[in-house]
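Recall that a protein's primary structure is simply its ordered list of amino acids. Everything else, from secondary elements to tertiary packing, is in principle encoded there. The following example makes that idea concrete.
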Amino acid sequence: MSQFEAQIVSQPAALDAMLADPSIRQQVHAAAEGLHRVRRIWVVGTGSSQHVAALGAGMLQDAGRSAHAVSSMQFVRNAPIVGPHDGVVIISHSGESAYALAARALAFAAGLQTFTITRRGTALNDVVETVEREPVETSSLGVTSALLAVGMVVAQMGAETVTQETLALVPASVRHALETPGVDGVPPDARSITVAGAGPAAVTAAEGALKIREAARLLATGGDAEYLLHGGVSPLTAQDHVVALGTPDEDGLVAALAVAAEGEGIGVTRVNEVAPLPNILAQIPAMARMQVLAFRLAQARGVDPDAPFTGRWADPSLWSIGAP
């Protein structure tokens, strides 16, 4: 078993443990109290953590808060207009991402209410800890645990749909997603894979494509169905494949895009999340399905999913750019 696969299958138990951990609950309470006092919240992250930030901002909006997701680099180099009564939530599983740490330092220097959602064992203060550091760069548990941590904070802030009761359903929903992922029809020899979603599932589509690229070294694009329709689908042929995420799809655009692709001779796999969760939380098990897909593609292609960055891509000097 690769370490990536081991992390994937560990998720239900790890998420259950998070919900029951008294130290995490205490950290969550402190974060919720601090964020209650701010006017507007910026949720900041890099890579997969940026996807967590996007969904996290949606959860905070469910609690009636003005929340905006932004990439770490954009926050540091092209900072939005941040006021003295704003708050910042930094998402960084490793606790070491260069621009995420720079964003955190910038927020602290400005005197903003700042919390970091990160792994256990960092030396950072004002944190909500999730799980132990993942042993590989191809993040799986780090993503879902960070999303659960944001949900735990938001539930304490009085969200309408992200509640203690719905959060309690997440681990079992992830377990079901891992047991029946519904991704068997995606061919490993496709020229490229396009993952399409709507609303919060557009974020899952982007994260799914990122995991496919990392784990399987296969060209993949993911995001909002409307955005993909406006040019993203133009180069697709029968050599490519489309994964259509149908939860949610209120306007039917994802379904229509899938039908159009089939009409052009392009293979389509439809993935619908059946978890009894509000759409924003349903993206946690949906992301687990995408992780299984990435692992299976890596396995079929004979690629090591544990080593996404090699050669010059692994140069420490490249990864340290932007650090405070």
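The CA atoms of residues 52 and 147 lie 6 Å apart. Residues 279-301 form the longest helix (23 residues).
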